[in-house]
Amino acid sequence: MRMHVPAAPPPGSARTGDNGARSQDNPLGEFLQTTRSRLMPADVGLSTGRRTRRVEGLRRQEVSVLSGVSADHYSRLEQGRERNPSPRTVEALGRALQLAPDARAHLFRLAGLNPNLRSDSARERVPPPLLQMLEASHQAAAYVLSPCLDVLAANAPAQALLSPFADGAECADGELNLTRILFTHPQAKTYFAQWPLAVTASLHALRRNALWLPDDTEIEDLIAELSAQVADFTGHGAGDAATALDRAYGTVIHPAAGRIELTYRVVSAPAAPGQQLLIGTPAPGGRSAQALTYLTAMGPQHP
Question: At what angle are helices 87-96 and 60-67 packed, to 10 degrees?
Fold first, then answer.
């Protein structure tokens, strides 16, 4: 089922949500509420059982489950207490509410975002010093991670290295997310030679960034999304808090080039708290260096 743009409410009007809260001068919240009220659980594959529903359309909690956006964050959006959602959040809500392209574009504009926002714009969030170091790392796989471990920018070797994941459902807004890849991609356990260590490091990084950046809703939304999809998600990697990302992603088994071992170093920038530049360098002249050169020459193909 595809939704079209609902008619805009009259200026100055207010609507009452399913928790009794009123939304005044909040076109984004109005649109979200109107759109979910027009979708029934059966339209999105949800079962309601035999209980009588007192709410017209989908509940907020159901939209949260479908989108992976936390229920609290979604409620704040509808109520107008949060008016600047991230592109990831808007894209996830558009998918959950089954919006047609015109309605999706309208949702982006209501959120103050470019409807054509994709991974190219993610690069704009990276401070120039990190980008310059990334582009200078010609013989290494270098990529910049956001606080929720989205790949914001990657040089040619890194793009080739991560090519098996580039077109999968693990992308959100066209961006790869390393934690989502580790837990949901069918090749993850064979691609990452030390998968348990990679999982531990990924979750440790998310928890650390959540403490450093308590207002970062992208971390909150990603944890909510994966907690709903992965059994005992929060229980993974609870032991070794000292594990770091630079030690977790060192060895991969690429389907086109075989085993590649990289030694990583991590660079941060004060201008972008929570962002990290990971630079993975193979031993000079070794098999891994040859394999990385071969992959880079192939380009970001998708085996």
Answer: 110
